[in-house]
UniProtKB/TrEMBL annotation:
GO terms for biological process: lactate metabolic process. The gene is hicD3. The active site is at residue 171. Pfam families: Ldh_1_N (PF00056). One of its GO terms (molecular function) is L-lactate dehydrogenase (NAD+) activity. Residues 6-146 form the Lactate/malate dehydrogenase N-terminal domain. NAD(+) binds at residues 11-16, 36, 122-124. Substrate binds at residues 84, 92, 124, 155. It comes from Pseudolactococcus insecticola. InterPro entries: L-lactate/malate_DH (IPR001557), Lactate/malate_DH_N (IPR001236), Lactate_DH/Glyco_Ohase_4_C (IPR015955), NAD(P)-bd_dom_sf (IPR036291). The lineage of its organism: Bacteria, Bacillati, Bacillota, Bacilli, Lactobacillales. This is L-lactate dehydrogenase. Keywords: Allosteric enzyme, NAD.
């Protein structure tokens, strides 16, 4: 199986720790660099992962809280934030106010580590934070992608039972469901909130989606995935089926054939993302 040598994960909360666990099980990386401001948490997760690895036929080297170790990493996953913001969120931009600050804290550390690989950004609002992170670390926008609407597309397929169902646009309220009834689209869009309201976070769906993205990167496959990639013309990130590679990041973006109404809805989604970006 194709493997990456080293993957960094910044943010070892629900999402980052589940991703680290999933990556250990999958054996897709020889080394994981685990970074979080909560050093005790990183150490605890590292101990748990080491216990896990005793059950597996492969090893994964675990490095704790060392930005310097990112120098030769091929991939960095950004999932730092504070999900507790949603407990008292009074508006949809509440998380952005917190996560944009986290980007400002983390970006100079990424830059001074000398890391120059590919970045996958998960932190919400996904498309906006992806652009902000790319700008703050000064990377070519092709080398920074967002997890986008792969998770939303999975949720939609679970509602429709149709493998052609696809979500594009914002990973958020303005997303656009294709090949789905309105009822299925609404139910899928609300799935994250349904999960969140019971367990106060979501993790398995997103961690396995990002593992799938990493598997595509490791294998060199040109499979199209609905990840958030930069549209030069629109001047923002949003999800459309895209092919990606470890060397170049975004290779191609394929906007599906859309009806006039869908074109207008995608435009609305892009405008939502751009308006949110302006609030930073
Ligand atoms: N894109 C998606 O589909 C998707 C899905 C689920 C969650 N998310 C988002 O992912 C983010 C993380 O979610 P979570 O449930 O893991 O949150 P969480 O609060 O459990 O974990 C966030 C972690 O980030 C760490 N952190 C905060 N500031 C940091 C900094 N400056 N440097 C390093 N680490 C820092 C915290 O200590 C914490 O461990 C949130 O923004 C959430 O909305 C996105």
């Amino acid at each position: 199986m194709a493997k990456l040598n080293k993957i960094g994960i910044i943010g070892l909360g629900h999402v980052g720790s589940t991703l680290a666990y999933t990556l250990c099980l999958s054996g897709l990386a020889r080394e994981l660099v685990l970074i979080d401001t909560d050093e005790k948490k990183v150490h605890a997760e590292s101990l748990e992962l080491a216990d896990t690895l005793q059950n597996l036929a492969h090893n994964v080297v675990l490095t704790e809280n060392a930005y310097a170790a990112l120098l030769d990493a091929e991939l960095l996953v950004f999932c730092a934030g504070d999900i507790r913001v949603l407990e008292t969120a009074s508006d949809r931009l509440a998380e952005l106010r917190v996560t944009s600050k986290v980007v400002r804290d983390v970006a100079p550390k990424i830059v001074s580590s000398g890391f120059d690989g590919l970045v996958i950004s998960i932190t919400n609002p996904c498309d906006v934070i992806c652009q902000y992170l790319a700008e703050m670390i000064g990377f070519d926008k092709k080398k920074v992608i967002g997890s986008g609407t792969l998770i939303d597309s999975n949720r939609l397929k679970n509602r429709t039972g149709d493998t052609r169902s696809l979500v594009i646009g914002e990973h958020g309220e303005s997303q656009l469901a294709l090949n789905a009834s309105e009822a299925a689209a609404t139910a899928a869009r609300l799935t994250g909130w349904e999960i969140y309201s019971a367990k106060q976070h979501t993790a398995f769906g997103i961690a396995s989606s990002v593992t799938r993205i990493i598997r595509v990167l490791a294998s060199g496959s040109d499979e199209l995935l609905p990840v958030s990639t930069y549209d030069e013309k629109a001047g923002c990130y949003y999800a459309v089926p895209s092919s990606i590679s470890l060397a170049n990041g975004t290779e191609t973006r394929v906007v599906p054939l859309l009806s006039d109404e869908e074109v207008a809805n995608l435009r609305r989604s892009i405008n939502t993302i751009k308006a949110n970006y302006k609030t930073i």
